[in-house]
Amino acid sequence: MLRPVRVALVGNPNSGKTAMFNALTGSRQKVANYAGVTVERKEGRLTAASGRAISILDLPGTYSLRARSPDEIVTRDEVLGRLAGEAPPDVVVCVADATNLRLVLRLALELKAVGRPAVLALNMIDIAERQGLRIDVDALSAELGMPVVGTVATRRKGVAELVGQIEAQAHLASATSIDTWREPTAAEIRALHREAERMLKACVRPPERPDTWTGRLDDVLLHPVAGIAILLAVLFLMFQAVFTGAKPVMDLITAGFNMLSGAVGAALPPGLLRSLICDGVIAGVGSVVVFLPQIMILFLFIILLEDVGYMARAAFLLDRIMGAAGLHGRTFIPLLSSFACAIPGIMATRVIDNRRDRLTTILIAPLMTCSARIPVYTLIISAFIPQRQVWGFLSLQGLVFFGLYAAGLISALAVAWVVRTLFWRGASEPFLMELPAYKAPDALNVARNVLQRAQIFLQRAGTTILSMMILIWFLASVPGKPAGAVGPAINYSFAGMIGHFIEPVLAPVGFSWQMSVALIPGMAAREVAVGALATVYAVSGGEGGVLGASLARHWSLASALAFLAWYVFAPQCASTLSVVKRETNSWRWPIVMFVYMTALAYGAAFIAYHLALAMGGG
Amino acid sequence: MNPPLTQTHALAPIAGPDTPAADPRDGEPLGEGRRGFKGVITAVRVQKASPGLDPAELERRLLEMGFVEGARVEILHEGFIRRDPICVSVDERRVALRRCDAGGVFVRPETAR
After folding, report:
1. Is the pLDDT of residue A124 over 80?
2. What digits encode the pLDDT tens for the residues A230-244?
């Protein structure tokens, strides 16, 4: 039997490459990581009409083989067959946006120079035809020396022909090319560009009805005043959807996990095993999976805005603000994701080319107020902040809530600024970004991408996060409560010992030993601290009302404010730290993150506690 | 925090092996143009990039994004803080970049001569 034909998809960003990948492989896709680097490896399979198996690799978008980001290095090395453990592709398919050929023709010329059989797919040919843009496919094919196929990936038009061309080229693939590639100089780039320009003149007639919508929309969306107002409105809508829209499903998931835990608990004899399965595994995974609806809604928005072409505009509008903190406009996307959960945010930093920019973004992502902080904030605010109106129309509780969000955002930018001006001066990425033409999103593609994100998140929850949860469960339940002892069992566990041990350190910021103990299980996920507080105060369940009243009796206002300030900064989430380890491939960055965030948390709690004491909040 | 926009202009041009000979008639840096400016790129010659970034590297990136001699450009939009960054149409594509990175792209207005 013949081995499958290996095909690599290469193309500029926004050329519809991923849509083409989906059109070719349907649901037969596998997402994994390249060994040693945190670049996603997307592979899919299909069977050609002739029965030949074809395996397709979707490579990250690029403008040239001259690589800069980890993503682009993978694209280059894959095309050149330099990746260890990866067989070189038999055929390279260059996916082009038919309405925007100039740059991709230069890329196609670069690919041709590598010497591997190649096919050019003129994607979105329908839009080109609608604009009255004429491409002489035969002439272009003759000029480039490779087959050229017009396609509409979202409607699977031309896909069969493309597969046929791939097969035809695969027969030529026996001649192995020698890797003689080297980075082109500026003069060579100019020469290639002139060559592409000449081909364009010879084979393409400019559009009779060029797209004017993009220009007209940009006049509004990039307007200094209206553009910012619309961006804020979009973000507001997104937050509304993430927080209110996800609520019913989140409640359902919580109820489901509680039921599961109850059912398993009833079936097992009481003891350590039952505790491990119910309180460790089920509750632990449940506390992470509960964020899945929020993450899916968030990614729905991000993928939609990306597909429509708006994300690049948002980066344009925010570049200057981000630039003031030494960051790149594109950092905005991961930071935005971090408002739901820092984990997808840190995973989204892969779009940032520059290593230092990426590390800075990873370091500040957990300072964004993630939704796991909300239960903690809600509990403390409702217990300690009076329900009062400020200036007649603002709720004081709401104001404090907003203040905590603002504190996270501002301190994130401040930390980025400190990192970029004191430690890593300069060396920032130039902000050079194509603003693609607006286009209607394809529902199927969006759905597929959102499901893929959900799957990746669940894989994390199933592996790294689960093991952290079990560790923290272990600390909080072993050793068990001695016979005849009084008080909650957690006091006698390792977590209790650690809590008692660190209590003197936390006393200056106003934390009692109960608070210190609650911080340890809170490392599993921030909102777990609510349940932990309920446990140490031996209040049944985590119901805000009962627990809140109990806290209000035991804590001073100053301690409560210090606890809030602590939670703005503290690295209270083991999952985030383990994802940072995964994404940076080193323990160094999670340790740096833990140290700097703990220091900030301690400082902020200290200031909050003593300011409140001085103002009579003791 | 930001270098003055005029700095690129004052530097003496250095002609490298890859860069066309310097010519004072090259025109003005794109980084100094205002919204509505229309012109043609006469030279791409980066002498100064953001600190830490090799000017030759920035030049190649600009070339790869379509900023090549002869390309027609128009400044379509400006950012709301200090008119930065700018959105430029390069032939029929739109590219966003910071003014400081556009200092090495020299342009001549379409209407002149």
Report:
1. yes
2. 999 998 888 788 778
Q: Is B80 on the interface with A (CB under 8 A)?
A: yes
Q: Enumerate the H helices of A385-465 as residue ranges.
A: 396-418, 443-460
CATH for B36-113, among 2.30.30.90, 3.40.50.11320, 2.60.120.10, 3.30.70.100?
Answer: 2.30.30.90
Task: Write down the ipTM of this complex.
Answer: 0.80
Amino acid identity, residue B52?
Answer: G
Least confident of A2-11, A22-31, A313-322, A531-540: A531-540
How far is CA A507 from its chain centroid?
Answer: 37
Q: Where are the beta strands (DSSP E) in A25-65?
A: 29-33, 40-47, 53-58
> Rounded to a whole number, what is the distance in angstroms from the first to the last CA of chain A?
80
Strand order through the sheet with A148-150: A29-33, A40-47, A53-58, A5-11, A91-97, A118-123, A148-150
In angstroms, the CA A567 to CA A369 distance is: 9
Q: Is pLDDT larger for residue A466 or for residue A608?
A: A608
- B-contacting residues of A 537-576, CB under 8 Å? none
- Cβ–Cβ contacts within 10 Å for residue A462, how many? 13
Distances (CA, A) of B111 to A557, B78, B107, B108: 69, 21, 12, 9
- What pLDDT does A345 receive? 87
Cβ <8 Å between A433 and B95 = yes
State which fold the A5-205 domain adopts: Rossmann fold (3.40.50)
Non-local CB neighbours of A138 within 8 Å, separated by 6+ positions: none
Within 364-383 of A, beta carbons closer than 8 Å to B belong to none
Domain coordinates in residue numbering, chain B: 36-113
Q: CATH 3.40.50.300: which residues of chain A?
A: 5-205
